[in-house]
């Protein structure tokens, strides 16, 4: 009998679970197919310059989406990221224009973004507000605050463009590669480690999978929630700095509907909106899929009206495929 | 009605679970299905009711090849399934849960709540309970939820009722009531498939027994022609000696002392001491407040007054995290809602309470976590492909072992175990008892809540009996009998007789 069990086990170990493989690698396969398709239709796509351009375009959405991954893993959502981006961008730009040292201005922007995220976290953890409602409210509040703060005008200033450091954030090159790509890579690495290699990451998954069980196993669920929204705000602020630097100005309506692209990237990457399941690698792929779609359709001269429709359809297909691979 | 399942096979990915199982049941009989944790009992029933497809074999209903599209379809054809893991909507009321998808409507298509309430109460009272049907179901204990599940299925006019571990969280009284109802329905021609790890029940209620092992059905017996020894041998492939191992306790100093703990309307004036190396059992009827007392001690729920002392020092435990820091562990009774993160791997589940101990230079040392999880899974004989599979893919009993592994691994000095062997097979039960002995030999104190009286008598040193939120007595297990405990549990001699 012992013998028999052993052979069964060996068989089990050898077995290859196709569905599981597709479920894990699906987004990556989709990206590869998409890249091949676009390259065939428009060979210019694969040029190094275009690819670098694509990555730079992707960086802003990717950075926001990395933070959003944590939020969605807990079963939450952060609609306020676009507004946080605008407000932190405006404040940073104003400080720079006023001649404040760029290091301090950048840190102030980042601190503000974290603080706004922290407020979201407080509302959700202690105010027991549903994440959708809480961040819907703060989305309009932060946006309104941006308009009040800027009087509705873009902030540009000679002094702002004097700062090499600030300029470098969105427009600099390092070793021939646009600097935002480095920012994206560093943020990815840090958040990857945080999610997959630290206790904080484990607790994030636990909280998203079953809040009750996580709490009883000693997870400070409220604390973790607050930190996660703080991270999301922080990421929005980093994105805000890249964008402001890139445009050399802070627009009061900057980042409008960026939350949608970020959420789309997370979902395309296979993270479940119900929480508890997903990986940050998937989000990177999701952001690249969206970037490739945008870039490819531009190269093909498809009108931006159609582009929106195509993007929506791709999201629906992704969700349907995800359903399939999760089915028994 | 007669159901025959022939040569059924099923694999989940590479995991072959069923490899040619035969099983049949017909009206008016109770057919028990037995087998170790992970033998494939629940899977077989899920195939019958159409939740899973099969990979081979056929199902005949009254001789006709049949396949149901899903549990609802099966129910409409007279097959009702009481699941091992309850699938209730915790925020919804008892009555709404009971009538989900079969709401009673008036002639305008509006829901007739009064009628539903009345019916719900009627069926619950048949099972001898008067649960408030307007309460959200999530506020009720697992045992109560189980009773509701049972009421739900007898309400459907089913021809065949499948009961997967219906009594795992029920106390003797409720089990008696349940058996009464089963026997009555049997006379009316209802057939039952009865899955349970509680041997005594099988002999009390079943007409036939089928034993499964390693994906096949090894034997079918008439219950009257077989004995417990034979069933165990068929199930685990070997003999198991005594059911309960001998206990040779050596008590150390008082480790936990609870004084006058009170939460109004829930429990009152609860005081007890636990010593190092001691197993203190908590016994009582369902709803007596045993779980609630432990939740308060562990910092999950609030209490109005009273004190908790650890090693003679007064402590304030404000949440589970601080309880764990004080080296207390709490295995909760409801593994699905409170014990496990079903979408997470076994290893992440097992390591969760101890995860802070695995950090090296700020990062988790994955290798040690794997080893840790593997070691505990071996110790508790968890049947799974490896430590990376999700907790949700395990059989009920194996999930229970994972929750136990997680708390055993947390290095607690005080372990609170609420129904530790719920849904666990005979062989594994014995392993768990041995483990409890090993832990108390290492000076761990165990508080065990159990509805299984033989288990309480077999494995504890002292028994605290709870009646309506108060401790009605703490007795030495030596010298205690089922009757003496029941008397305390029902609030005195007179009450005991009336019950
Ligand atoms: N959804 C699933 N995905 C993958 N594996 C599964 C799934 N459901 C069950 N299994 C596997 O099938 C086997 C049989 O499980 P099943 O739940 O039928 O056991 P069981 O006999 O009911 O055990 P128990 O007494 O513990 O309830 C187990 O090895 C389990 O891991
Ligand atoms: Mg089962």
Automatic annotation (TrEMBL), chain A:
<protein>
    <submittedName>
        <fullName>Ribose xylose arabinose galactoside ABC-type transport system, permease component</fullName>
    </submittedName>
</protein>
<feature type="transmembrane region" description="Helical">
    <location>
        <begin position="132"/>
        <end position="152"/>
    </location>
</feature>
<feature type="transmembrane region" description="Helical">
    <location>
        <begin position="226"/>
        <end position="244"/>
    </location>
</feature>
<feature type="transmembrane region" description="Helical">
    <location>
        <begin position="58"/>
        <end position="91"/>
    </location>
</feature>
<feature type="transmembrane region" description="Helical">
    <location>
        <begin position="103"/>
        <end position="126"/>
    </location>
</feature>
<dbReference type="InterPro" id="IPR001851">
    <property type="entry name" value="ABC_transp_permease"/>
</dbReference>
<dbReference type="GO" id="GO:0022857">
    <property type="term" value="F:transmembrane transporter activity"/>
</dbReference>
<keyword id="KW-0812">Transmembrane</keyword>
<feature type="transmembrane region" description="Helical">
    <location>
        <begin position="173"/>
        <end position="195"/>
    </location>
</feature>
<dbReference type="Pfam" id="PF02653">
    <property type="entry name" value="BPD_transp_2"/>
</dbReference>
<keyword id="KW-1133">Transmembrane helix</keyword>
<feature type="transmembrane region" description="Helical">
    <location>
        <begin position="265"/>
        <end position="293"/>
    </location>
</feature>
<dbReference type="GO" id="GO:0005886">
    <property type="term" value="C:plasma membrane"/>
</dbReference>
<feature type="transmembrane region" description="Helical">
    <location>
        <begin position="21"/>
        <end position="46"/>
    </location>
</feature>
<keyword id="KW-1003">Cell membrane</keyword>
<keyword id="KW-0472">Membrane</keyword>
From TrEMBL, chain B:
<keyword id="KW-0813">Transport</keyword>
<keyword id="KW-1003">Cell membrane</keyword>
<dbReference type="InterPro" id="IPR050107">
    <property type="entry name" value="ABC_carbohydrate_import_ATPase"/>
</dbReference>
<dbReference type="InterPro" id="IPR003439">
    <property type="entry name" value="ABC_transporter-like_ATP-bd"/>
</dbReference>
<keyword id="KW-1278">Translocase</keyword>
<dbReference type="GO" id="GO:0005886">
    <property type="term" value="C:plasma membrane"/>
</dbReference>
<protein>
    <submittedName>
        <fullName>ABC-type sugar transport system, ATPase component</fullName>
    </submittedName>
</protein>
<dbReference type="GO" id="GO:0016887">
    <property type="term" value="F:ATP hydrolysis activity"/>
</dbReference>
<dbReference type="InterPro" id="IPR003593">
    <property type="entry name" value="AAA+_ATPase"/>
</dbReference>
<dbReference type="Pfam" id="PF00005">
    <property type="entry name" value="ABC_tran"/>
</dbReference>
<feature type="domain" description="ABC transporter">
    <location>
        <begin position="3"/>
        <end position="239"/>
    </location>
</feature>
<feature type="domain" description="ABC transporter">
    <location>
        <begin position="246"/>
        <end position="493"/>
    </location>
</feature>
<dbReference type="GO" id="GO:0005524">
    <property type="term" value="F:ATP binding"/>
</dbReference>
<dbReference type="InterPro" id="IPR017871">
    <property type="entry name" value="ABC_transporter-like_CS"/>
</dbReference>
<keyword id="KW-0547">Nucleotide-binding</keyword>
<keyword id="KW-0472">Membrane</keyword>
<keyword id="KW-0067">ATP-binding</keyword>
<keyword id="KW-0677">Repeat</keyword>
<dbReference type="InterPro" id="IPR027417">
    <property type="entry name" value="P-loop_NTPase"/>
</dbReference>
<keyword id="KW-0762">Sugar transport</keyword>
């Amino acid at each position: 009998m012992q013998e028999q069990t052993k052979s069964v086990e060996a068989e089990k170990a050898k077995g290859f679970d196709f569905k599981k493989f597709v479920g894990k690698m699906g987004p990556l396969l989709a990206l590869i197919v998409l890249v091949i398709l676009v390259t065939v239709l428009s060979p210019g796509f694969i040029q190094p310059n275009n690819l670098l351009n694509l990555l730079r375009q992707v960086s802003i959405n990717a950075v926001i989406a990395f933070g959003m991954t944590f939020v969605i893993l807990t079963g939450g959502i952060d609609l306020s990221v676009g507004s946080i981006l605008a407000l932190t961008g405006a404040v940073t730009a104003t400080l720079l224009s006023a001649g404040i040292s760029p290091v301090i201005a950048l840190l102030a922007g980042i601190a503000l973004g974290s603080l706004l995220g922290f407020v979201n976290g407080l509302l959700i953890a202690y105010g027991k507000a549903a994440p959708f409602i809480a961040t819907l409210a703060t989305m309009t509040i932060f946006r309104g605050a941006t308009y009040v703060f800027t009087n509705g005008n873009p902030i540009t200033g000679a002094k702002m463009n004097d700062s090499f450091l600030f300029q470098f954030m969105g427009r600099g090159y390092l070793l021939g590669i646009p600097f935002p790509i480095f920012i994206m890579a560093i943020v990815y690495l840090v958040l990857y480690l945080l999610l997959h290699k630290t206790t904080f990451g484990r607790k994030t998954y636990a909280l998203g999978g079953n809040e009750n069980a996580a709490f009883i196993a000693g997870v400070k669920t409220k604390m973790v929630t607050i930190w996660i929204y703080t991270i999301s705000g922080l990421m929005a602020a980093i994105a805000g700095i890249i964008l402001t630097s890139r445009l050399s100005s802070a627009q009061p309506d900057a980042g409008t509907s960026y939350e949608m692209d970020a959420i789309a990237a997370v979902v395309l990457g296979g993270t479940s909106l119900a929480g508890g399941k997903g990986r940050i690698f998937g989000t990177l792929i999701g952001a690249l899929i969206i970037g490739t779609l945008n870039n490819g359709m531009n190269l093909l001269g498809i009108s931006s009206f159609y582009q929106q429709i195509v993007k929506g359809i791709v999201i629906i297909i992704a969700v349907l495929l995800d359903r399939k691979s999760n089915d028994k | 009605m007669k159901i025959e399942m022939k040569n059924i096979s099923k694999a989940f990915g590479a995991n072959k679970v069923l490899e040619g199982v035969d099983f049949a049941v017909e009206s008016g009989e109770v057919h028990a299905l037995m087998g170790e944790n992970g033998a494939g009992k629940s899977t077989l029933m899920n195939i019958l009711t159409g939740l899973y497809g099969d990979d081979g074999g056929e199902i005949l209903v009254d001789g006709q090849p049949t396949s149901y599209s899903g549990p609802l379809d099966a129910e409409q054809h007279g097959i009702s399934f009481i699941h091992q893991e309850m699938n209730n909507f915790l925020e919804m009321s008892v009555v709404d849960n009971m009538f989900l998808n079969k709401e009673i409507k008036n002639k305008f298509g509006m829901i007739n709540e009064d009628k539903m309430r009345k019916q719900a109460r009627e069926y619950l009272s048949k099972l001898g309970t008067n649960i408030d049907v307007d309460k959200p179901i999530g506020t009720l204990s697992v045992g109560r939820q189980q009773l509701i599940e049972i009421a739900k299925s007898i309400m459907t006019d089913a021809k065949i009722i499948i009961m997967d571990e219906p009594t795992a969280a029920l106390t003797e009284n409720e089990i008696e009531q349940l058996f009464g109802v089963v026997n009555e329905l049997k006379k009316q021609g209802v057939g039952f498939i009865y899955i349970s790890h509680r041997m005594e029940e099988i002999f009390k209620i079943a007409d036939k027994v089928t034993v499964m092992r390693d994906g096949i059905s090894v034997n079918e017996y008439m219950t009257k022609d077989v004995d417990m020894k034979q069933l165990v041998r068929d199930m685990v492939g070997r003999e198991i000696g005594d059911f309960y191992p001998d206990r040779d306790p050596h008590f150390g100093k008082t480790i936990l002392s609870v004084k006058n703990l009170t939460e109004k309307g829930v429990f009152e004036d609860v005081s007890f001491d636990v010593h190092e190396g001691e197993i203190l059992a908590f016994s009582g009827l369902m709803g007596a407040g045993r779980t609630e007392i432990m939740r308060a001690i562990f910092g999950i729920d609030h209490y109005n007054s009273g004190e908790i002392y650890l090693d003679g020092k007064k402590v304030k435990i404000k949440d589970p995290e601080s309880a764990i820091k004080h080296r207390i562990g709490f295995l909760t009774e409801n593994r699905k809602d409170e014990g496990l993160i079903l979408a997470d791997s076994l290893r992440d589940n097992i390591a969760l309470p101890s995860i802070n101990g695995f950090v090296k230079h700020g990062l988790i040392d994955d290798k040690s976590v794997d080893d840790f999880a593997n070691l505990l899974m071996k110790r508790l004989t968890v049947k799974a492909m490896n430590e990376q599979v999700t907790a949700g893919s395990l059989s009920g009993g194996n999930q229970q072992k994972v929750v136990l592994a997680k708390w055993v691994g947390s290095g607690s000095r005080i372990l609170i175990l609420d129904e530790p062997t719920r849904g666990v097979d005979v062989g594994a039960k014995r392993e768990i008892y041995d483990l409890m002995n090993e832990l108390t030999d290492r000076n761990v104190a165990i508080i065990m809540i159990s509805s299984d009286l033989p288990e309480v008598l077999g494995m504890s040193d002292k028994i605290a009996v709870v009646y309506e939120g108060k401790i009605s007595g703490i007795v030495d297990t030596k010298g205690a009998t089922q009757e003496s405990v029941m008397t305390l549990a029902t609030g005195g001699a007179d009450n005991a007789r009336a019950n």
